[in-house]
Specification:
Helices cover 0% and strands 56% of the residues. It has no helices and 26 strands. It has a 26-stranded antiparallel beta sheet, with no helix packed on it.
């Protein structure tokens, strides 16, 4: 399913910090971009229009009656019309209306019916043929499809299940010509209630439907094995859910119209993990990113990158506290080595830039930097 979805490219975050002129900290690793949530389920099962219910509304069927004697010579036995007028061919007749088992044909000669009648209406078990390859076999009542039955269409699609007033209502199975299909609950010809929808490519949805769309709790499994479990609305992932990818990456949190938003956690395939806020499938807002090598960043994100106030701690104990922009140290900040030496100053694009002060065990040194290159320094105290 991923191949069908437009996956948002998530910008790479942090570059390596270069601290020239003094002890250099380990490189700050770039956080791998979170994979975007798949977009809208692309092939909505044919729920809104299983090949349209034939225009003719066959008459209903009740419990079959004993075969009545044919009408006396010269007496015309009538069949009540549905969407077209009918002519009685053979079978029982009562009070001038078809009654019991019999046969009828539409006046235009295209349609035929074989089965039970009650007071001129199709009733009980019967077969209604539209003459174009569409055929219904099942129960009728008061001239319409009511009860259990099956309808086959010219394109080889088929519905078998419960009918009410000529429509799919209740439990049933719809199979499309390409092998896709649905098994579950229907209401007024649409998937409605709980059911299972499968696509010809192997993708499958199991869960709740409303008016022909994924809606409520459900599980969508893609052809490659990736899986989403959670809330849906109008065929989109919407609400709380978990999306697990085949490479082991996983997102758990809020979705809105198929997009990561709000609070969530994203675990990357290599074990790195982000916990915090998302916007439009990107890390955005306050969060904590723990890398697979043990490095950790806690602070503000913007468009998937470290941006704003934050703290980056290396696995070896070094630490930077201060401003970030586009994944780099930028603005006022403090770099603290694990031996507690520290540099306080201004950074630009990940490099020292401008005035700063280096504090060490041996004393304090004022320094001036330009794009990571030291310009001047003067010792102002010594221990």
């Amino acid at each position: 399913m991923k191949s069908r979805y437009h996956v948002l490219a998530l910008a790479a975050a942090t570059t390596v910090l270069v601290l020239t002129g003094c002890a250099t900290g380990p490189g700050m690793q770039e956080p791998a971009p979170a994979k975007a949530a798949p977009k809208t389920v692309t092939k909505t099962p044919k729920v809104d229009a299983p090949p349209a219910t034939p225009k003719a509304e066959p008459a209903a069927r009740a419990t079959p009656r004993p075969v009545e004697k044919p009408a006396a010579a010269g007496q015309k036995c009538k069949v009540k019309p549905d969407s077209v007028p009918w002519t009685h061919i053979s079978g029982g007749c009562k009070d001038s209306y078809a009654h019991g088992e019999g046969r009828a044909r539409s006046v235009d000669g295209r349609r035929s019916y074989v089965g039970g009648f009650s007071e001129g209406a199709f009733s009980g078990e019967g077969t209604y043929d539209w003459g174009d390859g569409t055929r219904y076999t099942g129960e009728f009542r008061v001239g319409q499809r009511n009860g259990q039955g099956a309808i086959d269409y010219p394109n080889k699609s088929r519905y078998a299940g419960q009918f009410k007033d000529g429509r799919y209502n209740g439990k049933g199975t719809y199979t499309d010509a390409d092998g896709s299909g649905y098994r579950g609950e229907f209401r007024n010809n649409r998937y409605h209630g709980r059911g299972t929808s499968r696509l010809a490519n192997g993708e499958q949805y199991v869960g709740q439907f409303a008016h022909g769309k994924f809606s409520g709790e459900g599980t969508y499994t893609e052809a490659d094995g990736s899986q989403y479990i959670g809330r849906f609305q109008d065929n989109r992932r919407h609400g709380q859910g978990t999306y697990t990818m085949t490479d082991g990456a996983k997102y758990t949190g809020q979705f809105k119209n198929d997009v990561y938003v709000g609070e969530g956690s994203y675990t990357e395939a290599d074990g790195a993990k982000y916990v915090g806020q998302f916007k439009d499938n990107k890390r955005h807002g306050q969060g904590t990113h723990t890398l697979a090598n043990g490095d950790r960043y806690n602070g503000q994100f913007k468009d998937n990158q470290y941006d704003g106030e934050g703290t980056y701690v290396w696995a070896n104990g070094d630490k930077y506290e201060g401003r970030f922009k586009d994944g780099k140290f930028h603005g006022e900040g403090v770099y603290i080595w694990k031996n507690e030496d520290k540099y306080v100053g201004v950074f630009r694009n990940g490099k020292k830039h401008g005035a700063g002060t280096l504090h060490t065990e041996s004393g304090t040194i004022n320094q001036t930097w330009k794009n990571g290159r030291k310009i001047t320094e003067s010792r102002i105290s010594q221990r």
